[in-house]
Structures are given as structure tokens and as C-alpha cells.
Write a structure and sequence with these properties.
The protein is α/β, with parallel strands linked by helices and 480 residues long.
């Protein structure tokens, strides 16, 4: 019988997660991205696909991964079946996100059986966790490349090893430097993500992100402003500023410049729409409210995760604000930006959450009248403090809380949509329905989805639409 030859490793660096957890912080350098000349062209004639899971941070990372691969000569394709390189950019936020990835790795094994030269890579937040790498090595030996969130810019070197039949594992436990001018292939021709900072210093007790993404590191204001200006010049209509806690922007820079200052500077740029995500309620301040009240290109929508409406739960989550603080800030914001739409994230069944505490969340939803929310059942993440807390609720009880909450939120989403019935709204046309070329879709300034009849040439433009009817998940309108 033919003996299976085990592929050698070109690089094999597994993370020391004790270092990551101790936050062995080093100072952040801001460097220019460069690729070695001899690596340009190694992908000529070959194809790739990047499959992204999780948040906008991952979507933005995947656009850089695509940019780097195309710089090496690879061409994007739409399916794994025909790709020479398949990369999974993973999310670790909840258990079900991880299970989906393992399902994908199992599925791709069958494809690789027929095409053994295919390179399978996996990267992102899951790789920064305890035990994941060992598990993948054991269960999914067909994976050729593993890297983490801190070393995307080393991808050319990794791919070069892979193309020379060597495997690579390279996960750094400590956050890396900031690289400017990484090439990007943006998924969308009119809407762009712009990272303003990386990492998170909050350490909410349920959350894995501070361990997978490292400490907070802000980009220089000038670099961000230039990127947004370049996007405006290239005809982009909308920019979403990204950070785990954008209100902490600049804290690590040794200059007197805040997130509100950044918003004010970006407000002067000739780009129609600026959005941002995500804010933290403790750091969301008067200066930001003031900047949002300027209007202009700053959209009248705020996504501000509240997580719970009960102070005792918030304390155990280490959120560092009370529900009264949240209400006070949102009351001020609603006064400063009349008609603003507020959306949120909420976790139900956090360990120890009682029925009364859950009802406080419902009360808060009713007070704020959130016009949308991402709602989650708490999912224990190994290595986070809350994973050790007792959680006596049954799965059925957890699901019931989620259903109850969603029902209340849907009513406010519907109410939020209803306020636009018979109004004229501005819609950035995103695309058209796959089933009907004449049905366009897009988002209003308040970030509400609108469907209306129109022709394809309008895609990428901002048009005026009269809202005919409000539904829970969208508005139906007609072009005027
Ligand atoms: N379980 C459930 N939801 C979580 N989130 C973060 N960590 C967890 C977890 N362990 C939610 C929070 C956060 C959003 C991005 O994901 O609501 O705001
Ligand atoms: Fe994004 Fe958080 Fe998932 Fe990482 S774990 S990809 S930061 S959602």
C-alpha cells in the first residue's frame, strides 16, 4: 500500500495564549505594507476565494486578504470547486459561529480529495483561541495554512510556502503593528469599510474579542482622512468607520484628538454618507452627540449595544454603565438629533439572569424604542470570566427569552418603519432583486431597507423614494 507522505511545515508558530491573556503589550508601530518583489506573480494563472464569517471587522480583513492575493497574481472566483486557494476567515464570538466553520472544513475535504493541489487556509478570530489549532490539526489534516488576526500582511510568504508544498501555522499571541497601504479589493463598489482602530480594551466578561483582537490601536487621523477622501474621489457614496469601540478612538495616540474630532473632520469631506460601528455606551459622550448633531454626511442612526437592561447583570458583564446612564445619553441624543434611529445588541440568559432581570431588559427596550436589535442567547467562550459562572436555565427557557424579546423588538422595528409611511426618503441604491431586474433595494439615511421599482442604472446612486407601506423588515416605496 502506498504510504501517505506527511507534508512538512514551512513555518510552525503556535500562539502562547498566556502571553495574550496577560496582555504583554508592546508599543504599536505604524508601518508601510510592502511585498517582496520576488513574490509578486506567484499566483499568476491561479484562482482564490475568501469565505468570511462574523462581523464587519472580518469583512474588512477579507478585503485586505483579497487585495494581497490579487497583488500576488491570483484571480477571484465565485465557488470553492474551481478555486486553487480557499481561505476561511473565521469568527469566534459564539459557539454556533464556530460549528459552522467546522462544517465547512468537513465539506471542503471532499472537494480537495479530487483536487489535492488545492490550498486550504483558515484564519481570523478562531485561530487566536485556546486549543483550536490542535483540534484542526487533528481533525482536519487537509488544512494547509493557519494564521491569526495579527499577521494578515505575512500572507505572501505563507502562500509561497504552500505553493512549494509546505504547510504553515503562524499565529501571534500579541497584537501586531498597524500596516498602512495594504491593497484592498472592496466587495462593494459604492460602500466601503474603513478601520479607524483595531482591538478592544473593554474585557466584558462574556466576550472573546479582547483576546482574539488584542489591545486597542488607533490609526493616525491623517491616514483615515486620506483614505476617506480617496474613496470620495473614487465615487464611493458611503463609508462605515470600524472599531470594536470607536468612542475610544485616539486614546492610545499621544495626541489630543478624539472620535468626535474625527467625525467633524470627515464631515467636511465630500462623501454623502458616513456611518460608524460600534460604540460603547460608557464612552459615548457629549462631544460625539454634538458631532452627530452637525448632520451633513453623518447619518441619523446609532448602533449602541446595550446588552442588558438590568444593572446587576450589566455589572457582572463588566459593562461599566447603568441602564439609567444609557437612557440619559439616548435622551440627549434624541433631543440633539431629532428622529434619529437607535439600534442595539442584546444578550439574553447571561449566567444568573433572573426572570425579573430579563424583564428589565424588556422595559429598557420599551423606553428607548430600539428600531432594530441583534439579539443573542449567551454562549460561553472558553477563557472568558463568564464561562465559569453558573447558568441554571434550560435551553428551552433561554430560547423562550429570546423569542419574547424579539417579539417586543419587532413591534418597535415596525413602529420605526411606520413613521416613514407617506414620507419621501433618500435611498442609496445597493442592488436589484435577483428575481426581478426592475425591483431595486437600498438603505435610507436611518439605515432602513427600502424596495422599489426602478432600473439598474440607478444602482450606486442616491435617489428620492416615497414610502408607500411599512413592513417589519423593509419599506415598500416608489421612485419619485
Ligand atoms: N454570547 C452571546 N453573544 C455575545 N456577543 C458577544 N459575546 C457573546 C457571547 N459570548 C454579542 C454581543 C456583542 C455582539 C457583537 O455579539 O451582543 O455586542
Ligand atoms: Fe468579529 Fe468578534 Fe467575530 Fe472576531 S469574534 S470576527 S471581532 S465578531
Amino acid at each position: 500500500m502506498e504510504k501517505k507522505i506527511k507534508k512538512e511545515y514551512g513555518i510552525c508558530n503556535k500562539p502562547d495564549l498566556k502571553l495574550a491573556r496577560k496582555r504583554m503589550t508592546k508599543s504599536t508601530n505604524i508601518l508601510e505594507y510592502k511585498v517582496a518583489n520576488e513574490l509578486i506573480g506567484i499566483g499568476n494563472g491561479k484562482t482564490y476565494i475568501v469565505k468570511t464569517y462574523g462581523c464587519q471587522g472580518n469583512l474588512a480583513d477579507s478585503e485586505k486578504i483579497s487585495g494581497i492575493l490579487e497583488q500576488l497574481g491570483f484571480t477571484k472566483v465565485e465557488t470553492e470547486e474551481i478555486a486553487d486557494v480557499v481561505l476561511f476567515n473565521t469568527c469566534a464570538i459564539r459557539e454556533n459561529a464556530e460549528n459552522r466553520i467546522y462544517g465547512e472544513l468537513g465539506r471542503i475535504k471532499r472537494i480537495k480529495k479530487n483536487r489535492p493541489d488545492m490550498i486550504i487556509g483558515i484564519c481570523g478570530c478562531m485561530m487566536q483561541e485556546e486549543n483550536t489549532i490542535e483540534y484542526i490539526q487533528k481533525k482536519y489534516p487537509h488544512v494547509d495554512l493557519i494564521f491569526g488576526t495579527h499577521n494578515i500582511t505575512d500572507l505572501p510568504e505563507y502562500i509561497n510556502y504552500n505553493l512549494n508544498n509546505k504547510k504553515v501555522i503562524d499565529v501571534k499571541s500579541i497584537e501586531g503593528d498597524i500596516f498602512e497601504n495594504v491593497p484592498v479589493i472592496r466587495d462593494h463598489p459604492y460602500k466601503a469599510w474603513v478601520n479607524i482602530m483595531y482591538g478592544c480594551d473593554e474585557f466584558c466578561t462574556y466576550c472573546i474579542v479582547p483576546y482574539t483582537r488584542g489591545k486597542e490601536r488607533s490609526r493616525r487621523p491623517d491616514d483615515i482622512i486620506k483614505e476617506v477622501q480617496d474613496l470620495a474621489n473614487a465615487g464611493y457614496q458611503e463609508v462605515t468607520l470600524l472599531g470594536q469601540n470607536v468612542n475610544a478612538y485616539g486614546n492610545d495616540l499621544k495626541i489630543d484628538y478624539t472620535f468626535a474630532d474625527l467625525l467633524k473632520d470627515l464631515n467636511k469631506i465630500n462623501i454623502p454618507r458616513i456611518r460608524f460601528t460600534t460604540s460603547h455606551p460608557r464612552d459615548f459622550d457629549d462631544a460625539t452627540i454634538e458631532a452627530m448633531a452637525l448632520g451633513g454626511n453623518i447619518m441619523p442612526h446609532l448602533h449602541l449595544p446595550v446588552q442588558s437592561g438590568n444593572d446587576e447583570v450589566l455589572k457582572r458583564m463588566n459593562r461599566k454603565y447603568t441602564s439609567a446612564d444609557y437612557i440619559e445619553k439616548m435622551t440627549k441624543l434624541k433631543e440633539a438629533v431629532p428622529g434619529i434611529s437607535i439600534t442595539t445588541d442584546i444578550i439574553v440568559a447571561f449566567p444568573g439572569e433572573t426572570e425579573e432581570q430579563f424583564q428589565d431588559t424588556i422595559k429598557l427596550v420599551k423606553t428607548i424604542e430600539f428600531e432594530g436589535a441583534f439579539t443573542f442567547i449567551y454562549s460561553p467562550r472558553e477563557g472568558t470570566p463568564a464561562a465559569k459562572y453558573e447558568n441554571p436555565l434550560t435551553e428551552e427557557e433561554k430560547k423562550q427569552r429570546l423569542l419574547t424579546l424579539n417579539k417586543v423588538i419587532n413591534a418597535y422595528t415596525n413602529k420605526g418603519h411606520k413613521r416613514f409611511e407617506n414620507e419621501i426618503v433618500e435611498v442609496l441604491v445597493d442592488g436589484y432583486s435577483k428575481n426581478n431586474d426592475n425591483m431595486l433595494t437600498g438603505y435610507t439615511k436611518h439605515n432602513m431597507l427600502v424596495n422599489f421599482e426602478g432600473t439598474k442604472e440607478l444602482v450606486g446612486k442616491i435617489v428620492k423614494v416615497k414610502v408607500l407601506k411599512a413592513y417589519t423588515w423593509h419599506l415598500l416605496g416608489e421612485l419619485i
